[in-house]
Amino acid sequence: MTVRVLVADDERNLRRMLRAVLEADAYDVYEAENGAAALTACRRIEPDVVLLDLLMPEGPDGLAVLQELGSQDAAPSIIMMSGKATLGDAVRATKLGAFQFLEKPLTPESVLSTVAAAAELARARAENRALRAEIPVTDDLVGAGPLMARVREFIAQVAPTRSRVLITGESGTGKELVARAIHRASPRAKKPIVCVNCAALPRELLESEMFGHERGAFTGAVARRHGKFELADGSSLFLDEIAEMHPELQAKLLRVLESGTIERVGGEHEKAVDVRVIAATNKDPTKEVAEGRFREDLFYRLAVFPIHVPPLRDRKEDIPALVAHLATLAGARCGRSPRVFGTDAVRRMEAHDWPGNVREFANVVERLTIVGGDQQVMADEVDAVLGPARPVDDEVNRPGAPESGLSRALESYERQLIRGALDAAVGNIAEAARRLNTDRANLHRRMRRLGIRRSDTEVSI
Hints:
Number of helices: 19
Largest sheet: 5 strands, parallel
Number of strands: 14
């Protein structure tokens, strides 16, 4: 999708120069010669990014335009420009929501890199608005049981503060939902939360992704890039799977948390950032510290306010509400009416241990939404996905029971573990093998033996 950029400046030659630079990089460019024209153009073309001069002689000045645009729900990313700005001007512009402040004379490199980062932020905001419009959900943390009530209580306590939060819990329990709930209830909610999966980024790119880089900092760095900390300035930064972060980057992250400043890769100057860090891990952080894989000083910096998200098997009283909620979401995602789960079907789901937690649960609900015909989900449909429920007493646990009873129980448990890992990894065999502490070849052999097909796990949430 082409990005729309509005250049608002009373200098005609500067507008022409910026138009030429930006159109050469495939942006759609529009011009406005003063503040009033800028506001009119914004209503007409709904730009993604606005390059806005601070001082314009006719009508409202740049700060007045910034304040007006910033109060709108679908505000563009705004880059202020000036050759005569004071520190007070820059501070006020930042408080009013300006993405960046560029000093004149401008260079093509700084304009292109800043507009690219602003466009990335605008896209993230647009995606968030689209998702909220498509599925209007007021609370993604479903469940009225005591464990989830405690989690909500913690969120309500910490959200209004600036304190860092460390969220722990097994894979698939909803740690990112907790992070987003904290952000939504915080004073930073007007800006989108920025998320980083520390385990998904290659080691050599982590520092650049986190802190950005300057042009020419390394091979392939053809332009300046803003890192996640800069994109999250004035907002929240969610660091998922923080325990997977390389030790070298842990040291640099610790320094940022202590100083409140970042330095881009290849840069020579530090930049202050106002970022609230929310981290999460599916590992035991105290064990990771004790075994030397995670820095103790970083752990204490992050775990100012710890929140543990319980596994689904410990809050099965929430399953009926969770089924109804996820069935509604699955129906909206698949373009179908949500299916109603019968009482016996819900009981089957309550009897399952859900090793993949809510992520596995959501996958199963969506799968049943896709494959089912009748409006009501019956118990046999759940059995077809999870396997029939078997009593775990009498035959299997009775002393002297035949070996086949134990074999069946072990086989059933192994099947549940593998399906849970595959669901948690969204069908990715390599990731599922990593979660099960085995290799891909061994996992493939076990799947063939148990009759588990990869196609059964490829429904994403």
